[in-house]
């Protein structure tokens, strides 16, 4: 997962730019944007109020996390994509390569946070009930035995992250085969591998919980289950990678 | 200052006068007692680095975060000793990343506390002697070095540290960043480290990390850095 190449990430960004072409068509012409202006992304609005996830995630955390941290990834991504478009136009291949890590990091930050806001909802919402995800929950039980074991496994994965990163429930499709997996990614590496659908993700950067939970990240990991949007998780589980990433099209 | 801070300050003051206290000039190794890592005493009060770093941050950072690295290091070291006793090479390899992370966390923070000091104890006073000369030779001036150092800190993608290091082969200094808790080992000798994990500044500075990077130079203990420089 962490080995996903920068080019596959670029592909996703590019395929999102062409709303009327499919991802497959786009894959055949990934670098034909020399004449184009660089795409510009903007901050997607939160689908709920900043205080809507209280008491599990405080208003102050949400304001900073969405309004400052997510915005910074977008600002830096847009700047890097603009520089890249210029490097492509100037046939500066060394310049393009030197931009890849920055694009991967900041685009990853934009992708991850966009998915994250969508896969949470207020605890009082019917979408926060696991009954909103009957098919997904069925496969979770089939995979981990029961929901409690699944949550324990997810918690262990999240608490085992060394440094900044994310934990994801991922649907992995390989031909006709399909399975669920708990995956951790470092820093802002996104889940963009072939056949992978990020069902829901949990941000384990310290900025995601520190103002409220301080060094008590286990409590954050416990509490966040109250605000997982199972309806969105079910939709992503039943859909394609492109479906999961549709939020990004809306923020261009 | 909260009563918790006062209480732990009093404990530290008592420890400081204890005759068994190890001299503070040494490196991380001096905090290992009979093979067990222990949390080193801070050489100043939690609130002493204000306003650059708040007492609340210092208390959590030292007493919780650093303590967790120490506890985990001892736990994984014990497992490592068992794996060695059983000649279980697979288990030893599996444990190495845990030793690197938690051992690195212990080493890094130990060096970090030492290379900070309140202004009343020389914090922020510029380096002198050979280290100063080396900085000027490599960067032109201390301010130019700080600027490069802050750019390195700002460029860390995720959690990590920036260090002024000395190349043990050439003796020259350079700025290097390290991911997560990777310690400065091998070819390079740590001279001065700044923690760029979010827990190091978030309560005071939130997302404005550039302000933290700027403010921390006011409490950098260049005397400690000079002792490490050879
Ligand atoms: Fe985040
Ligand atoms: Fe730290």
TrEMBL record, chain A:
A single Gene Ontology CC term: mitochondrial matrix
UniProt-listed Gene3D superfamilies: Fe,Mn superoxide dismutase (SOD) domain, Iron/manganese superoxide dismutase, C-terminal domain
Reactions this protein catalyses: 2 superoxide + 2 H(+) = H2O2 + O2
Binding site for Mn(2+): 65, 113, 203, 207
Coiled-coil intervals: none
Family: Belongs to the iron/manganese superoxide dismutase family.
Name of the protein: Superoxide dismutase
Organism: Polyplosphaeria fusca
Automatic annotation (TrEMBL), chain B:
Residues that bind Mn(2+): 61, 109, 195, 199
Domain Manganese/iron superoxide dismutase N-terminal residues, every copy: 38-117
Cofactor requirements of the protein: Mn(2+)
A Pfam family reported for this protein in Swiss-Prot or TrEMBL: Sod_Fe_N
Broad enzyme group: oxidoreductase
Keywords (A to Z) from UniProt: Antioxidant, Manganese, Metal-binding, Oxidoreductase
Claim: Oxidoreductase is one of the keywords in the record: yes
Keyword Metal-binding on entry: yes
Manganese/iron superoxide dismutase C-terminal domain location: 127-228
The organism's place on the tree of life at top rank: Eukaryota
EC id: 1.15.1.1
InterPro entries: Fe/Mn_Superoxide_Dismutase (IPR050265), Mn/Fe_SOD (IPR001189), Mn/Fe_SOD_BS (IPR019833), Mn/Fe_SOD_C (IPR019832), Mn/Fe_SOD_N (IPR019831), Mn/Fe_SOD_N_sf (IPR036324), SOD_C_sf (IPR036314)
Single GO MF annotation: manganese ion binding
Catalytic activity from the UniProt record: 2 superoxide + 2 H(+) = H2O2 + O2
GO CC annotation: mitochondrion
Family as reported in the entry's similarity comment: Belongs to the iron/manganese superoxide dismutase family.
Listed PANTHER family: SUPEROXIDE DISMUTASE 2 (PTHR11404), SUPEROXIDE DISMUTASE [MN], MITOCHONDRIAL (PTHR11404:SF6)
Known function: Destroys radicals which are normally produced within the cells and which are toxic to biological systems.
Protein name per Swiss-Prot or TrEMBL: Superoxide dismutase
């Amino acid at each position: 997962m962490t080995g996903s190449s920068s080019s596959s990430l670029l592909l996703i960004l590019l395929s999102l730019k062409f709303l009327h072409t499919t991802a497959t068509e786009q894959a055949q012409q990934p670098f034909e944007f020399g004449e184009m202006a660089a795409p510009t992304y903007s901050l997607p609005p939160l689908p709920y109020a900043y205080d809507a996830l209280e008491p599990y995630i405080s208003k102050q955390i949400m304001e900073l996390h969405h309004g400052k941290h997510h915005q910074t990834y977008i600002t830096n991504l847009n700047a890097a994509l603009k520089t890249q478009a210029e490097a492509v136009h100037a046939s500066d291949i060394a310049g393009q390569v030197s931009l890849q890590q920055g694009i991967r990091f900041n685009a990853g930050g934009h992708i991850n946070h966009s998915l994250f806001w969508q896969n949470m909802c207020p605890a009082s919402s019917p979408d926060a009930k696991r009954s909103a995800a009957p098919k997904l929950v069925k496969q979770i039980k089939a995979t981990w035995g029961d929901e409690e074991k699944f949550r324990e496994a997810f918690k262990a994965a999240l608490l085992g992250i060394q440094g900044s990163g994310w934990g994801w429930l991922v649907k992995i499709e390989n031909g006709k085969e399909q399975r669920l997996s708990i995956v951790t990614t470092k820093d802002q590496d996104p889940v963009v591998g072939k056949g992978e659908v990020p069902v829901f993700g949990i941000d384990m950067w310290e900025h995601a919980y520190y103002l409220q939970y301080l060094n008590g990240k286990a409590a954050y990991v416990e509490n966040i289950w109250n605000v997982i949007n199972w309806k969105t998780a079910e939709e992503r589980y039943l859909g394609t990678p492109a479906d999961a990433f549709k939020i990004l099209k809306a923020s261009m | 200052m909260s009563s918790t801070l006062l209480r732990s300050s009093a404990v530290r003051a008592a420890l400081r006068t204890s005759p068994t206290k190890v001299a503070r000039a040494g490196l991380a190794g001096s905090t290992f007692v009979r093979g067990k890592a222990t949390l080193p005493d801070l050489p100043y009060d939690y609130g002493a680095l204000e306003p650059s770093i708040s007492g609340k941050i210092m208390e959590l950072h030292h007493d919780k975060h650093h303590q967790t690295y120490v506890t985990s290091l001892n736990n994984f070291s014990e497992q490592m000793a068992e794996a060695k006793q059983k000649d279980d090479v697979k288990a030893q390899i599996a444990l190495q990343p845990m030793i690197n992370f938690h051992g690195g966390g212990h080493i890094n923070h130990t060096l970090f506390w030492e290379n900070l000091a309140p202004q009343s104890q020389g914090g922020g006073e510029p380096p002198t002697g050979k280290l100063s000369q080396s900085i000027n030779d490599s960067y032109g001036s201390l301010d130019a070095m700080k600027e490069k150092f802050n750019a390195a800190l700002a460029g860390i993608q995720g959690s990590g540290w920036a260090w002024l290091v000395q190349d043990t082969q050439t003796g020259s200094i350079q700025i290097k960043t390290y991911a997560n808790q990777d310690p400065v080992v091998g070819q390079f000798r740590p001279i001065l480290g700044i923690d760029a994990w979010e827990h190091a500044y978030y309560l005071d500075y939130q997302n404005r990390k550039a302000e933290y990077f700027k403010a921390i130079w006011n409490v950098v203990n260049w005397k400690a850095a000079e002792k490490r420089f050879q």
